[in-house]
Each structure stands twice: as structure tokens, then as C-alpha cells.
């Protein structure tokens, strides 16, 4: 890093999650993803290969799938005789903790449809679930002639097919019950089998504070961004209306490919598309502002909340275009605050740093730049990165994976400060302490580099840290009252402040802690 906030080596230490370089078209993740399947579009991110489905039962050979069809969940062909009872919805026989009581075998064949005796006997009370309950089979399972459920199929290769069949059979049993009840009520005559539902309100109104109400209010102010470089390469991301002048707030990595002569457009939820241009980018913050070239009248900016007042457990709503699926809404909670995150921008050596809001709302490639909204409908963050399982890449690594419930958003208080600077000057302004941090140091804190450059470059004697008495080799352990466990954590915390702010800093020298007040300096633009 430079003598400001950055380190002497690019690798990020284990203490803070990081991701490999990311293409601008998608969102950076914190780990490296497995190879993506060939079917996934290159400009919308990749999903990890799905696990191999269990083999179909030996008794039934699955028909050959059509070209391009998913082969891991084939449906078995319909048997000549009526099918055996389907297992409970989602129930897996091979994983049951206890075997159901032995069932009598099903008859070889049923009476032909239409030739059975009428009225049929009333069905036994069904059990709810795969086992236990009232002691019967799955809810909706057909009964044999002696009133007992037929044997259940073995294995789990036909689980998807069983669910579909169970749904159909449940409708058949319901019809039988309805007929039997009508016949009994009519004294032996043939009565109507129609069951009338309650009256549905003509106008179904949803509370403005519900998820549906908040989403309906926010969607018209969210755009799907398409960015492409001069060679045509690019991808899809998300942004939201920042003001009535047509400024759109998003991530830097969403629009970076179009920053130098590329094409940029924004499509609203009503399908209307507008050409746009980049007003300013902040690579370090991963924030960018674009502007619609011919903005429509009546733009409605999303209200901005106060990310400093967010609490763990607060509800969240994420809106974006995951894998290019525009106007997608997901929900969750704030699962952590002040999570230090370093994510690659795809340039091969530069990282973005944030002290992020963590959420379990489903966020995927394409959600980048979209709003994270609180329970009042106010924006509390910009969705930017995800952590993927198994070393998988996220929003722009060598391969892309989907959400596992660990999404990260730039706090809106920080993003707002950056946006104002980009709109006014086109350049970001970073708070700095003017030291070089050793990112490879094995220390419980952020260690100031001791080599790689002259001492006056490792700690600028006229900079904020130098004036406060810090020297090469000192280990910074606290900043602004928050613990520092690594170089990226320190940078993430510094960038939550503004130039000119005075912050308390604690460092170790020879094992002895010292706390000083430090006034932050500034750096204009990215390096």
C-alpha cells in the first residue's frame, strides 16, 4: 500500500474476507468459486454445479430427456396400474428415523374407472406427515380397497415425481370426500359436488408497511444497469434513483467496464430504458454515480436511512437483478454490523474495503449496486458482495456462486458522502492516516510496515500518524473505539470517517499500549 492507508502487499490476511479479482459486470465475492456450468450466461454470473441427483429406482427406467432438459430430476413413467401411495410432501423414506408399521400389499389392480361401486366408502382420517400423526400414511395418500394405505416406494430417486403425484392424488381424494358428503346430505340422492370458497375481496389491499407494500413503493425507483466495454464485453447490475436530476447510485464494479468509451443503460421496472453516463467512480469504496442522459420527469428518489442506527435483527429487503432477473425482491435481517470486507474489483491488484452491513437476504450476482432497505422502506446500504461456500467465487471472481445467506452491503452513510463528492467533483475523497500497513504481518492488529521503503514513506512525519508519534513497527489495535485485527480492518474503519475528523487510536510498541488522538488527512482520487 501507499503511505496513506494501504499496504505493501496485495494479499489480504485471513482476518478479513476477500475475493479474487472480479469482472465489472457482476458483484465481487469473497472466495473463489468452483467452475461454472456451461449453461450459465457469462455476463450474469455463474452458479455452482448442482450436486448429482440420486439414481432413479431400478424398477422404472426414466425416458430419455429432451435436448437441453435438466436430467438430474427426471420423472418416472406412469405405471400401467394405479400408482402406489406417494410419500408425504418432501418426506424422504431413506432418511426416516423410524420405519412405519408394515403395510399390507396393494391389490394387483383396481377396478376400472367408472365401474367402481357408488357411493364409495368414506376414507379413513389421513395422517399429517410421513410418520406418526394419526398413524396413517401421508396426507392425501389414496387408500386400498380394505381401507389401508398401500406400501410406500423405496429410495429417493423419484422424490420429485412423488411430490407431483401426491398433489394430483390429494385432489382426487378431496373430490371423493366432497361427493360422499353431498350424497349423505341429500338423503341418498345425487347432490352437487361443487365446493364454494369464501368470497374474495374485489380489491386486495396490502398494508403500506408490509414487505409487499414496501417493495411496491421502492421498485419504480430501482433500475437494472447494463454496462459494456468498447469490445462488447460487460454485464448486468443494479442501481437506484438518488435524486430528481437523474443521478443513479450503484457499485463501481458494475459500471467500470463502460467508464472509458463503453455503453451504459438503465431500465426501470416499467420496462422503459434510458442511456446513461458515468459521473464519477470510487474504486476504493466500490461506489459509483451514473446519470441518465434524458431523465424522465417525476423521478422518485429512494429515501436514505441512517446506517449508524441499524441494529442486528432489523428486517431487510434486497432489490436487484440477480443473474439478470430484474425486479427481484428478497427479505432477511441485519445479521451483523461493522463486518470488515475486502473485495476485488477485477483489475488484478486493487481491492475495495468496507465496514459492511451483513444480511441473510438472498443476494446474488446482478444484485450489485441495488438497495438494501429497512422495515420503513429507507435505504440502509448498497448490496456489494457475498461469501460463498466451498471456496466458491461470488460477484465477479473466476467463477460465481449463489447466496448462502452471507451478503454484504456498503453502509448508506458512507455511500452518501462518497456520492456527494462524485456528483460535485467527479472524484472521491478518502480519509487517510498516511502510513503503510504490512498486510502479510502475523499480528493481532494492523502493523505499520518496517521495510520496503524509507521510513519517512512508511510513516509520513507530516501526516496524521506521524504527528501523533507513530513509527514503523507499531501495531494499531483500536481505531475509534473498535478493535483492529488486521490491515484491511483498519482501512475499512478509517473509510467510515471523513477527512478532518479526530479519532482515538491505540497502538502497541514493545508490548506497551498507547492511545492518541489523530486528525484524519485526505487523499483525492484513486491511485
Automatic annotation (TrEMBL):
Segments crossing the lipid bilayer: 160-182
**Compositional bias segments (type: Gly residues):** 129-139
Chain ranges of the PDZ domain: 456-520
- Enumerate the Gene3D superfamilies for this protein: 2.30.42.10, 2.40.10.120
| Coiled-coil ranges per UniProt | none
Task: Keyword check for Phosphoprotein, yes or no.
Answer: no
Q: Which UniProt keywords apply?
A: Hydrolase, Membrane, Protease, Transmembrane, Transmembrane helix
Low complexity composition-biased segments? 24-74, 108-117
Keyword Cytoplasm included in the entry's annotation? no
**Pfam families, alphabetically?**
PDZ_2 (PF13180), Trypsin_2 (PF13365)
Annotated region described as Disordered, given as residue ranges:
1-156
Q: Where is the composition biased (Pro residues)?
A: 11-23, 76-85
> Which PANTHER family does the record cross-reference, listed alphabetically?
PEPTIDASE S12, PROTEASE DO-LIKE 8, CHLOROPLASTIC
For this entry, the protein name equals Trypsin-like peptidase domain-containing protein
* Species this protein is from: Streptomyces katrae
Amino acid at each position: 500500500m501507499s503511505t496513506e492507508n494501504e499496504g505493501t502487499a496485495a494479499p489480504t490476511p485471513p482476518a478479513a474476507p476477500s475475493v479474487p479479482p472480479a469482472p465489472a459486470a457482476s458483484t465481487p465475492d469473497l472466495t473463489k468459486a468452483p467452475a461454472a456450468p456451461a449453461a450459465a450466461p457469462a455476463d450474469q454470473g455463474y452458479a455452482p454445479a448442482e450436486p448429482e441427483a440420486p439414481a432413479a429406482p431400478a424398477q422404472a427406467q426414466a425416458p430419455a430427456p429432451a435436448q437441453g432438459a435438466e436430467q438430474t430430476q427426471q420423472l418416472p413413467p406412469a405405471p400401467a396400474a394405479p400408482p402406489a401411495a406417494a410419500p408425504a410432501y418432501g418426506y424422504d423414506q431413506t432418511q426416516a428415523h423410524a420405519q412405519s408399521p408394515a403395510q399390507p400389499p396393494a391389490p394387483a389392480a383396481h377396478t376400472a374407472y367408472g365401474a367402481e361401486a357408488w357411493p364409495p366408502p368414506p376414507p379413513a382420517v389421513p395422517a399429517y406427515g410421513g410418520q406418526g400423526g394419526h398413524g396413517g400414511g401421508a396426507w392425501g395418500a389414496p387408500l386400498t380397497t380394505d381401507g389401508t394405505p398401500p406400501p410406500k416406494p423405496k429410495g429417493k430417486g423419484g422424490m420429485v415425481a412423488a411430490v407431483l403425484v401426491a398433489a394430483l392424488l390429494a385432489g382426487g381424494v378431496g373430490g371423493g370426500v366432497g361427493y360422499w358428503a353431498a350424497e349423505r346430505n341429500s338423503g341418498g340422492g345425487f347432490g352437487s359436488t361443487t365446493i364454494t370458497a369464501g368470497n374474495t375481496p374485489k380489491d386486495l389491499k396490502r398494508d403500506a408497511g408490509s414487505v409487499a407494500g414496501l417493495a411496491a413503493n421502492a421498485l419504480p425507483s430501482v433500475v437494472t444497469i447494463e454496462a459494456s466495454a468498447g469490445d462488447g464485453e460487460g454485464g448486468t447490475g443494479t442501481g437506484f434513483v438518488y435524486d430528481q436530476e437523474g443521478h443513479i447510485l450503484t457499485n463501481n464494479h458494475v459500471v467500470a467496464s463502460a467508464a472509458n468509451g463503453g455503453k451504459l443503460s438503465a431500465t426501470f421496472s416499467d420496462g422503459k430504458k434510458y442511456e446513461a453516463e458515468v459521473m464519477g467512480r470510487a474504486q476504493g469504496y466500490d461506489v459509483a454515480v451514473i446519470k441518465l442522459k434524458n431523465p424522465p420527469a417525476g423521478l422518485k428518489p429512494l429515501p436514505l436511512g441512517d446506517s449508524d442506527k441499524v441494529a442486528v435483527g432489523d428486517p431487510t429487503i434486497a432489490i436487484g437483478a440477480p443473474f439478470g432477473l430484474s425486479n427481484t425482491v428478497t427479505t432477511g435481517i441485519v445479521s451483523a454490523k461493522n463486518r470488515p470486507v475486502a473485495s476485488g474489483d477485477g483489475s488484478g491488484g486493487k481491492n475495495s474495503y468496507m465496514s459492511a452491513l451483513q444480511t441473510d437476504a438472498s443476494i446474488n450476482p446482478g444484485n450489485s449496486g441495488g438497495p438494501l432497505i429497512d422495515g420503513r422502506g429507507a435505504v440502509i446500504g448498497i448490496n456489494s458482495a457475498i461469501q460463498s461456500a466451498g471456496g466458491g467465487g461470488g460477484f465477479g471472481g473466476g467463477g460465481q456462486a449463489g447466496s448462502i445467506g452471507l451478503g454484504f452491503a456498503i453502509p448508506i452513510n458512507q455511500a452518501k458522502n462518497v456520492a456527494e463528492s462524485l456528483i460535485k467533483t467527479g472524484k472521491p475523497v478518502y480519509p487517510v492516516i498516511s502510513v503503510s500497513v504490512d498486510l502479510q504481518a502475523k499480528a493481532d492488529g494492523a502493523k505499520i510496515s518496517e521495510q520496503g521503503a524509507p521510513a519517512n514513506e512508511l510513516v509520513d512525519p507530516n501526516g496524521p500518524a506521524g504527528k501523533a508519534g507513530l513509527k514503523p513497527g507499531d501495531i494499531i489495535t483500536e481505531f475509534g473505539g473498535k478493535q483492529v485485527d488486521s490491515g484491511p480492518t483498519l482501512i475499512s474503519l478509517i473509510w467510515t470517517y471523513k477527512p478532518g475528523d479526530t479519532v482515538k487510536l491505540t497502538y502497541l510498541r514493545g508490548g506497551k499500549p498507547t492511545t492518541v488522538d489523530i486528525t484524519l488527512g485526505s487523499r483525492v482520487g484513486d491511485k
